[in-house]
């Protein structure tokens, strides 16, 4: 972009020096927890004097953390399984209707993503309290699905816009009903986008913390809720181990999506 | 010329339209149930006493409390502070990335996106480790003799601001980078061939053409900052209280559902106000861009 200014060495050095500092700022907190998680000491010393796996043992040996891990994985899976089909049908609807109707549906479906989490959380808390559902898995699940629907829509809408609808028309003219057309033509062809949408929905649920903090409790506490509570009380290196594992899993998931999309 | 449509075909088209509408019902239903109903419920709750009778007492109580107004000020300070720092740090970084070769830029973008993929609580924990009194940054500062005493970097406004900028910066960067990538390099070459200095190209070509991206990025930062909860709650250490943490404390500690709802409504009103201002700003921006060639 700036090839036209090859002699402006100083400007280039200043710009890239600044960029490197900002990038270090962005990556620092993610990377700093990795060596700490392997420390043998319960002080947060850096670099650690001796290494061990005791914080990982702590995590896997703790009934509370394991229950939270189980809850989070179940919630993430259910969220993806519900949100992605809902979002797919919604996106087909928007794509076929077009115009003002589609724009209206889209603005409703994207509302949850611009509403502050704290408002969704306390509102949902009131609604669930009236039905005596606070602390149930169902309550958190509803909150996570509503956050995952817009995320899945953002992935699926452009995919459907590129989709060749003549194929569906051909199938319909040959007598296939809509269920057949969606299941037999749209779903197989959108495989990769559907996989991305599923993983994104799963990650949305896994990382969601505000709704969980207000609505989940006891046995149904999620990982973020438990981490939030323990960060407020004391800083335990077990959380460094959890953070490292978590980031590793997310990086793997993101790489899968990235490579799938390329191939 | 008039086109006559076979009534049977028209009925068919209407039926198909209804069918397509029905496809979006499950998604609309869940959004209605878990997002729109809760917001309406907050409005209703704000007019109820603990006993369930209608009152405007909650509003009187919340609006006459000094804590509410200081929360409002803190919310604005945090949001605008975050936005200002994002613009200062993000715009040069976007420019550097946009001027890099595509292959290099893609790799660097993956690193920039790493925090976006790190769970918010993991990042918050990372910042606690770095910023505490005996944390890494203070150890480096006192160790190198730059400061005699450890600096108070966390459990205060500074720590909260650092955490929030860290969360918002990648979100700001994405639209700015996209806008700068789309600038036609020939425009810059043309300006250079006619003797424009790098500073002039910046001011008259690059900045006006990235204004749209910077604006989108700013909207995203403001929308997310206003109701941000986790970072102030953990890195603020109870001393930084924007509306979001006041809502939590009013609800969880004082069990005052009515007042918590009024604070929620305040947050909604604040968002609406900012929305209106942003729309006005966009109109102004669009006018300026149209006027630019004549100036």
TrEMBL record, chain A:
Keywords: Cell inner membrane, Cell membrane, Membrane, Transmembrane, Transmembrane helix, Transport. One of its GO terms (biological process) is transmembrane transport. Pfam families: BPD_transp_1. Residues 69-257 form the ABC transmembrane type-1 domain. It is found in: Cell inner membrane; Cell membrane. The chain crosses the membrane at residues 12-38, 73-95, 107-130, 136-160, 181-203, 239-259. One of its GO terms (cellular component) is plasma membrane. It is a multi-pass membrane protein. InterPro entries: MetI-like, MetI-like_sf. This is ABC transporter permease. Its main location: membrane.
UniProtKB/TrEMBL annotation, chain B:
InterPro entries: MetI-like (IPR000515), MetI-like_sf (IPR035906). Signal peptide: none annotated. Pfam families: BPD_transp_1 (PF00528). The chain crosses the membrane at residues 19-43, 78-100, 107-128, 153-179, 212-237, 257-280. It is a multi-pass membrane protein. One of its GO terms (cellular component) is plasma membrane. The keyword Membrane applies. Residues 72-278 form the ABC transmembrane type-1 domain. It is found in: Cell membrane. CDD domains: TM_PBP2 (cd06261). Keywords: Cell membrane, Membrane, Transmembrane, Transmembrane helix, Transport. GO terms for biological process: transmembrane transport. Belongs to the binding-protein-dependent transport system permease family. CysTW subfamily. This is ABC transporter permease. It comes from Mesorhizobium temperatum. The lineage of its organism: Bacteria, Pseudomonadati, Pseudomonadota, Alphaproteobacteria, Hyphomicrobiales.
């Amino acid at each position: 972009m700036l090839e036209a200014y090859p002699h402006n060495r100083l400007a280039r050095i200043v710009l890239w020096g600044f960029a490197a500092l900002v990038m270090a700022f962005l990556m620092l907190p993610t990377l700093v927890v990795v060596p700490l998680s392997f420390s043998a000491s319960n002080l947060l010393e850096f670099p650690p004097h001796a290494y061990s796996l005791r914080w990982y043992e702590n995590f896997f040996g703790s009934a509370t953390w394991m229950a939270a891990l189980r809850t989070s994985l179940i919630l993430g899976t259910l969220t993806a399984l519900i949100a992605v089909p809902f979002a797919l049908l919604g996106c087909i609807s928007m794509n076929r209707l077009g115009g003002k109707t589609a724009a209206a549906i889209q603005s409703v479906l994207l509302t949850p993503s611009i509403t502050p989490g704290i408002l969704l959380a306390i509102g949902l808390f009131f609604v669930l309290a009236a039905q005596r559902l606070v602390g149930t898995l169902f309550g958190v699940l509803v909150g996570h699905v509503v956050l995952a629907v817009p995320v899945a829509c953002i992935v699926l809408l452009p995919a459907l816009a590129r989709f060749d609808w003549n194929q569906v028309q051909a199938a319909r003219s040959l007598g296939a009903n809509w269920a057949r057309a969606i299941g037999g033509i749209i779903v197989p062809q959108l495989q990769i986008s559907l996989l991305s949408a599923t993983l994104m929905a799963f990650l949305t649920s896994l990382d969601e913390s505000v709704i969980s903090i207000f609505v989940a409790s006891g046995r149904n506490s999620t990982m973020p809720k438990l981490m939030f509570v323990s960060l407020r009380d004391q800083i335990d290196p077990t959380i460094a181990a959890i953070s490292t594992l978590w980031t590793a899993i997310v990086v793997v998931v993101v790489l899968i999506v990235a490579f799938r999309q390329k191939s | 010329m008039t086109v006559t449509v076979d009534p049977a075909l028209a009925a068919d088209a209407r039926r198909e339209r209804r069918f397509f509408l029905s496809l979006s019902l499950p998604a609309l239903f869940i959004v209605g149930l878990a997002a729109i109903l809760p917001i309406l419920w907050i409005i209703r709750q704000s007019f109820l006493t603990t006993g369930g009778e209608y009152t405007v007492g909650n509003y009187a109580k919340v609006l006459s409390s000094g804590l509410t107004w200081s929360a409002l000020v803190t919310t604005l300070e945090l949001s605008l502070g975050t936005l200002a720092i994002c613009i200062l740090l993000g715009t040069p970084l976007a420019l550097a990335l946009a001027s890099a070769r595509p292959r290099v830029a893609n790799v660097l973008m993956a690193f920039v996106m790493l925090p976006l993929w790190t769970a918010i609580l993991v990042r918050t924990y990372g910042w606690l480790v770095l910023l505490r009194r005996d944390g890494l940054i203070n150890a480096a500062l006192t160790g190198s003799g730059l400061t005699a005493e450890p600096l108070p970097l966390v459990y205060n406004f500074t720590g909260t601001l650092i955490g929030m900028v860290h969360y918002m910066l990648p979100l700001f960067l994405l639209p700015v980078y996209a806008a700068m990538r789309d600038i036609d390099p020939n425009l810059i070459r043309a300006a250079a061939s006619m003797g424009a200095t790098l500073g002039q190209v910046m001011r008259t070509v690059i900045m006006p053409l990235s204004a749209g991206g910077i604006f989108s990025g700013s909207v995203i930062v403001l929308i997310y900052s206003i109701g941000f909860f986790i970072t102030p709650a953990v890195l603020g250490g109870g001393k930084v209280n924007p509306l979001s943490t006041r809502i939590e404390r009013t609800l969880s500690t004082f069990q005052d559902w009515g007042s918590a709802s009024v604070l929620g409504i305040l947050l909604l009103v604040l968002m609406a106000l900012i929305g209106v201002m942003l729309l006005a700003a966009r109109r102004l921006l669009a006018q300026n861009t149209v006027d630019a060639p004549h100036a």
